[in-house]
């Protein structure tokens, strides 16, 4: 029984960002936000979401200690990809408005919260941005803004799947129990954003629409997500502006919100949702339950109040 269980505002306002889950935390790297400076070279920012306290924090800038070490830290960018290998996050691709696209592979050591510059592959890949990769044991899917390619590492089988859900772009993809879930996206032919959820079964080679309970995200594209156990953490993205004149020339707005989709909510979670939904008295509940209820209903405050977006 899929259910949207958490909705919070006030996180990092980002589109085209990249994130990985490590333990009970989500590490989000860079991304685009209208109104921010993407011409001046500066370090990529790192935001961390704690799925226990349901709070965002921003890591302080890395002390490089010299120009040579500064190259080990990726510059602020959007449209990149991040993947976790053991306790190391590999960051690849992306671009900013000065340097353009980047083909340097960077590593972020979670245990030390530091970056290292690993290798440049000018002979293997052209500079890429707005790309992603999702895989299960029997399915591997990846794409870039300009071309499609897949690479398999220690997988017994790799199958390329052409996704054709109304020609969606910038949608969310995540694997769970051997199936691929796709959320939202944008159809340029219809000029329409989506908020529906579909799953693909690679064995039956079939698609099925999924309708979770609870209130989910509004239609959007360029959002980010991570899988933690039986839960998807989804945050950011861009959508049509609900009020005329509040967006940019494309009438779009960036999001600083976060949603959690639980594939198997337990009784405790369902009870907490009922307390919130019906505004039930909480004074007689245990302290830890009241703390969790407060965390589920208290927004973060690290984003600045802007409404326009990058198309």
TrEMBL record:
GO terms for molecular function: chromatin binding. Pfam families: Kelch_KLHDC2_KLHL20_DRC7. SUPFAM superfamilies: Kelch motif. One of its GO terms (cellular component) is cytoplasm. PANTHER family: KELCH DOMAIN-CONTAINING PROTEIN 3. This is Kelch domain containing 3. It comes from Cyprinus carpio (Common carp).
